[in-house]
What we know:
Elements: E1 3-7, H1 12-23, E2 27-32, H2 37-45, E3 50-54, H3 63-74, E4 77-82, H4 97-125, E5 128-133, H5 137-140, H6 146-166, E6 171-178, H7 184-187, H8 191-199, H9 208-219, E7 230-233
Parallel strand pairs: 1-2, 1-4, 2-3, 4-5, 5-6, 6-7
Helix pairs in contact: 1-9, 3-4, 4-6
Amino acid sequence: MKTVVITGVSRGLGLATGQRLVADGFKVVGLSRSLSAEYQALIDSAPQQVVFWPCDVTALDRIPDLAREINRGHGPVFGLVNNAGIGLDGVLATMHQADIETVIRTNLLAPITLTKYLSRTMLAHGEGRIVNITSIIASTGFHGLSVYAASKAALEGFTRSLSRELGKLRITVNCVAPGYMETEMTRRLGGDKLDSIRRRAPLGLPRPADAAGAVAYLLGPDGAQITGAVITVDGGSTA
């Protein structure tokens, strides 16, 4: 049973990815600041396949020890899904510096650092899959999300370059870039704004399970020859 580490598993896309990968026969090591009831239910449904590890990915100095402990207890790690992220909106000119640094630390420095240490096991075993969750905002832009867009665009550049570094050792590095998805958070937008977002997606807004399917594809046997790619899951809103 191959082990996949997923960050931000407590809800949303991270949770949906964990559920999908368990169904596909992977062992899932989920990282999150807190254990949600939904992820606990996943553990209860497959206790031999699902592990929870409390972790704040922005504590960069703790990542080397975390990687060693995961490899020792649940390794070797085959896959890494860098899903944890944060979006603090605000006009750049008035945005607090602390908020800017939080977004960059969470969305960019944390996945880079975690990839650095967990990819070492993949290098030692000559195989591995890394999937970075970005966003359509990396390429389209959005008012009030300049820092968020910068962090996700940088993560896509990191992905492309790293795919060339690791490809010769049969390690793939790809991105899944969701658009707006049908979640409780999206539904709270309400009114004209939500209607406008839905109208831009000819297939309708995707669900977290749809984006999780793209992640599963990249981790599965059919994704073995794909690297340096960005798979967009947005219901066609950027077509």
